[in-house]
Amino acid sequence: MPLLKREPDLFPVDLFDLPVESRPWTVAYVRSRQEKTLARYLAQQQIPFYLPQTENRIVTKVPPRAQSGNSAPIAHETTGGDRSAHRPSAHASSPAATRLRIAYNPLFCGYVFLRHSLEERLKVLQSDVIVTLLGVADQRALANELAQLRDLQAAGASLIPHPWIGVGDAVKVSGGSFKGYHGIVVREHGRERLVVSIDLIRQSVAVEFEREMLSPDLFPVRRTGGKMRSSGSRF
Asked: Taking the model in full, what pTM does it have?
């Protein structure tokens, strides 16, 4: 099982404790497939950043004839919670060997979250991979959303990219490993998932949970003045 080295997704370790006055949050939208390039550059420059990543399991089917060098292997990729191995087709003439490779890809394609000072802004732009920098009007809201996302990862949640979901029936998890987390419930393919959204970039992730662990959220996210705001937070 070849394992591609997981690059750091956060710098420094106390990223979420940095003072917002001197190091406000900014969101970098980068050129295609340049998220890790920017993260490496920021780490070299000692500029704080957060690049959440998800585990991808890539199953490569190697037919017997390919093992002798006559044919190229065929790759099949699964992301997040869907880790079922690819099965050979029913009409295959003989069993095929498979190879599994694990890689870590950005959870939100195109986006890197960073906290640079005013003096470091030029260094950030000199990375040559940034399309634009997005200002963050509601610093507390973004910090809370990213901190919850980070805590879910630390708790061992398998996060899956999910279409963005706005205001809906808000709940909080009242028990288990994810107690205290807030989000919106969806049901897909017979499974219930808690969807956590990053409103600024209109991106969401989902994590599976047990239904009995839910209770109504007393501090749901609400929309005021065209922006997403929360009437309360656990942070």
From this structure: 0.71
Map out the domains of the chain as residue ranges.
Answer: 55-105, 138-235
pLDDT digits (tens, 9 = 90+) for 25-75: 999 999 999 999 999 999 999 999 999 999 888 888 877 665 555 555 555
For residue 36, give every residue at least 6 positions away whose Cβ sits within 8 Å of its Cβ, in sequence order, or none. Answer: 7, 51, 106
Main-chain dihedrals φ then ψ at residue 148, nearest 5 degrees = -65, -40
CB atoms within 10 A of CB 220: 17
Q: Tell me if 218 sits within 8 A of 233, measured CB to CB.
A: no
C-beta separation of 87 from 150 below 8 A: no
CA distance to 12, 138, 181, per residue, from 125 (Å): 20, 22, 35
Q: Mind giving me the DSSP string for 18-70?
A: S-TTTS-EEEEEESTT-HHHHHHHHHHTT--EE--EEEEEEEEEE-HHHHTTS
Tokens 């992301």 correspond to what residue? 79
Residues 126-170 have pLDDT tens digits of 999 999 999 999 999 999 999 999 998 888 888 888 877 665 568
- Supply φ then ψ for residue 161, to 5 degrees: -55, 140
